[in-house]
Amino acid sequence: MARFQENDLPKAKLDSNSLQKALRIFKYAKNHKWKFFVGLLFLLLTSATALAFPKLMGMLVDCVTNKDLDKANEIALTLMGILVLQAVFSFFRISLFVNFTENSLSNIRFALYENLVKLPMSFYSQKRVGELNSRISADISQLQDTFTTTIAEFLRQFILIIGGFVILGSISPKLTLMMLAIVPVVAVAAVIFGRFIRKYGKKTQDKVAESQVIVEETLQGISNVKAFANEWYEIERYKNKIKEIVKIAIKGGQYRGYFASFIILCLFGCVVAVVWYGITLTIKGEVQGVGDLISFVLYTTFIGASFGGIAEMYAQIQKAVGATERVFELLEETPEEINANRKGAAVEKIKGKVSFQNVAFSYPSRKEIQVLKNVNFTADFGQKIAIVGPSGAGKSTISSLLLRFYDITSGEILVDGKNIYDYDLENLRGNMSIVPQDVILFGGTIRENIAYGKPDATDEEIFLAAKQANAWNFVEGFPEKFETLVGERGVKLSGGQRQRIAIARALLKNPSILILDEATSSLDSESEKLVQEALEVLMEGRTSIIIAHRLSTIRNADKILVLDNGKITEEGTHQELISLENGIYKNLSNLQFSNS
């Protein structure tokens, strides 16, 4: 299906503005620009040698009439020389264009990825990953095809058409006018007809893809199909889709038949008409000999083929200009201020006192809904602050704001008495670690995933973090131990194992501020016990902000904040909150402990 997506890329209107935007691609060619221009020179030479070919063929045929064998040998050798030159020029043209394109696109790919990684979370909350993936794959592939072959071919065909008409005019103006009246018209009609047929072919392929979806769904959910005794329903559904495919395919076949008839009648008819008129003019003496007539027919064929190809290439160039615009849209997005030169630099340690002062916030995508309203709380160094409340109350938003994923609407967030916006972003985040509810691991080894918290960590540091996180035993149980591949997003590990890897990662980073976002809510009792023990080790000597769903995990917190509808409505220890009559915390607690 990826191929269809590429073919379906939207086209941009070609005007001076869109072309100007597209030419910005040369900025990324850096010191490879010269290859494009030298490639253009070889393109001109290739076209010139191509234009000489029909003329020389005509002269060769004329040698039959003149019975001049020496001249025939001379022309044949010249033709062979031209073919050799054309082969050499084509080699340099193609290799130079490919070299220019690949170097330019690798720079664009890198710049695009670098910018994407640095973009703020507010950007990702409004974009789909699939769409961004398509920009890097389909759009860049479109540019690759265009710069490697399409532009060169487009220019070559253009030169052949113009040069061909000039030479035809010198052979016979009358014959040229007659050819102009029919060949381009038929060639353009053939292109339009061909495009219509391809559209029909694509319709058939789309319907086949839809039928495959039915098969996939049915087989994946076969237990449901059997349980509902709905085999007849699925069979009927598939049969109807197959009928649609047959109907469209037969119609497409008929159109292809019309197209074949059109080509035979019109295109070959054109050749017959041009040859007939040429012979007429030759007999009248208006065209010099049979050689000129042969040259004329060959030039006509060249021009007809070029007319056919140039329309398709123009459409490809339109798509490429559209792709360039979409790629540059992403490149122009404003990234976060991340200092690339800081790689490996030591993080300046902060103590870890956190203070929210009248913080209000709305997500950029839905500004009318206030998620947090005048939130005030302080977490002193080493304190465990728990945040509880119903779903959608804004608990996870607090951790996102502390990590500066989003900009607050009003108020202030202070760390060690200093506004978080006055900190270097990497330094601020370098002092924090988050253990989320849904841990996403990268597809490498367990060692690489733990070391993500500190890429230059030694083996001893990684092993110690694994032991402290209660991960050592299960890791050592694997045949490949720390070299075990975790699979995409960590699918080869259980939820509890993934959680302990995330805790080891956080321990290795040695943060001053720790955020636990419902870190045990999706685990079974045994895993929860092991993870909870690891979390206790992790929280020691740090400021911990615990977003909790299970209240059993936060009974020992220094302070519990109850967040409801974006506001802190209750605050205190477990004992203090449990004694509040009709309190939200007390109700939540009664519900959970009566069910357990």
Automatic annotation (TrEMBL):
Subcellular locations according to the entry: Cell membrane
Domain annotation ABC transmembrane type-1: ranges: 37-319
Q: SMART domains under this entry?
A: AAA
Sequence ranges assigned to domain ABC transporter in this UniProt record = 354-590
Can you tell which superkingdom this protein's organism belongs to? Bacteria
Regarding the membrane, this protein is recorded as: Multi-pass membrane protein
Looking at the keywords, is Membrane present? yes
Keywords attached to this Swiss-Prot or TrEMBL record, sorted alphabetically, are: ATP-binding, Membrane, Nucleotide-binding, Transmembrane, Transmembrane helix
Q: Which SUPFAM superfamilies match?
A: ABC transporter transmembrane region, P-loop containing nucleoside triphosphate hydrolases
Q: Which GO terms describe its cellular component?
A: plasma membrane
Main location group = membrane
Name the residues that span the membrane.
76-100, 154-171, 177-197, 257-279, 291-311
Query: What GO MF annotations does this protein's record show?
Result: ABC-type oligopeptide transporter activity; ATP binding; ATP hydrolysis activity
What name is this protein filed under? ATP-binding cassette domain-containing protein
- Organism of derivation: Flavobacterium hydrocarbonoxydans
